[in-house]
Amino acid sequence: MVGSRSIYKVKQEANRSVEKYKARFVARGFSQIKGIDYEETFAPVARYSSIRTILVLSAQMGWHIHQMDVNTVFLNKVIEEEVYIEQPEGFEIFSSESHVCRLKRALYGLKQAPRAWYTWIYSDFTELGFSKSEVDPNIYQIVAEGKLLIIVLYVDDLILTSDELLIPSCKDDLAKEFEMKDLGLLHYFLGLEIWQRSD
């Protein structure tokens, strides 16, 4: 049986003002036992060198680079293993103290949650017609209207780059598949500050 807890956090803007208050119910994955609560946990992320290469390519081609963020990335992804968590604090049924909750879907903190997310998004990208790069498993590309469109995936952050005419339709397609936030032109990403100009 896996423990659980609630986490409360204040998310701040770059200027330190409060953007929003976040509450998250998480599993205490450190108590999971391999072979019982989970099997496979590996989920790749884009390499930093690959991200820098895509930025350079975009600059040379004169493409804009956009960013999107997937909301509640690990939630609602089906897990294959039988995982039980203790009754959440504040929601206990005191007449049934020995009862537990069986998880049918992933929670933040579960060891297999990143793997479930990666498997799900990979299958959705494939259905949309994207092919995975042979060099980096988190770079996806598609040729639409004779033009190349590239998506870089870093956990729940997406970078899109292509001819400016293809970006809006790709964003619309992705928004139909995932609950996403459009962050517009890429400005901050993994510690990089990016300024995009016409030249």
Structural summary, described in words:
The chain is α+β, with helices and mostly antiparallel strands. It has one domain (3-193). Helices cover 20% and strands 38% of the residues. The protein contains 3 helices and 12 strands, in the order ββαβββαββββαβββ. The chain has a 6-stranded antiparallel β-sheet with strand order 6-7-8-9-3-10, sandwiched between helices. The longest helix has 15 residues, at 113-127. It starts with a strand and ends in a 6-residue tail after the last strand.
Topology:
Blueprint: E1 3-12, E2 18-28, H1 48-61, E3 64-70, E4 78-86, E5 100-105, H2 113-127, E6 131-132, E7 139-144, E8 147-154, E9 157-162, H3 167-177, E10 180-185, E11 188-189, E12 192-193
Antiparallel strand pairs: 1-2, 3-9, 3-10, 4-5, 6-7, 7-8, 8-9, 11-12
**Would you report the number of β strands?**
12
Share of helical residues: 10-25%
Estimate the global geometry from the Cα principal axes: elongated
Order of helices and strands: EEHEEEHEEEEHEEE
Looking at how many chains there are and whether they match, the oligomeric state comes to single chain
Query: How are the strands ordered across the major sheet?
Result: 6-7-8-9-3-10
Number of domains: 1
What would you call the structural class? alpha+beta
The value of Rg in angstroms is: 20 Å
How far is the first residue's CA from the last residue's CA?
57 Å
Biggest β-sheet strands, sense, barrel: 6 strands, antiparallel
**Number of continuous helical runs:** 3
Strand percentage lies at 35-45%
Average of the residue pLDDT scores: 84
